[in-house]
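subagent[fold] <- orchestrator: predict structure for attached chain, return tokens only, no commentary.
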Amino acid sequence: MKFYLVPTLIVLTLAASAAAQVNHAELLKKIPEEFLTHVGGAMPGQNGLVGHNRDGFKASAFQRGATLTLALAAARGDRKRAEDCWRVVDATFAQQKEKGDFGDPPTSVAFWLCELCRSLLVVQQSPLAGDYQTRIAGLLPKIRLAAAWLAGQQAALIRADGDTPNRLFFSAEAFGFAGILLQDGKLTAIGKEFLARGLTLYREADGVFLEHGGGDSSYQAVNLLRLQEIAIHFPDPKLEAAIRQGMKWELTRIAADGTVSTASNTRVHPGGEKFMGAEKQVNVGELTLALLYYHLRTGDADALAAARRISEHYTR
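subagent[fold] -> orchestrator:
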């Protein structure tokens, strides 16, 4: 595979201080109510399990949807909903092994750690911060153990995910956000390495993140969401330039009626990749969320209009 190196984007700083951070909770609070049912994540059952795990724990990655719901609830000060979502945290860590993993592959653990740590950072900035201060403090040793295990799996992560930038950005967030929570510069440095590796798969000429060698309207959105979350906590103008160019390309794939084109996609298209036996579909939820993040962070009206078209089209 040909890699497109972007020197100006590789030298990124993941050493931003908390004082420099945009308030992630405030951003989530500003998401218009009309979109919450489309981007709101999942609710765990009484046993704390979600989605593909509902009939029994299979992988930590399947738990991540409820962490987004936790973040949105905390941002809005919704104690009842946040408390219901916290069950997913307890249920997942009940599966943690002695070495820190959850019995599933490194990529799955990176997905979980990424979105868990993202959401805990949101909780710490939210109106519910005081309610969860003690619980988060008690969770940190378990997060440290999971992050240490994952740090020992870096070669496996690169082998599995080396041509999928979105997965590399998941790992960048997992290490980078765990580094913030744990005040651990070594984890932050690993996050920087995964971010730089992912950006070698960015094509500056047209803003495409190369998933399996080409553009993909669904995974482009996942890349843009992950990078915007990184940029919120680790501001960098070069990273913003990649997000801006990538969003321009993504907007060209959204039709006037809200349909998301899969033509020329490398992964999500008719006859394309399957997951658990079903053909993958456009990730409408994360695409909508990526557009809303961009609108709320930059004021871009086209992104908001596109989010509305998508929402209307896919809920008919």
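orchestrator: received. Logging for downstream: Residues 7-314 form a domain with the Glycosyltransferase fold (CATH 1.50.10.10). The longest helix spans residues 129-151.
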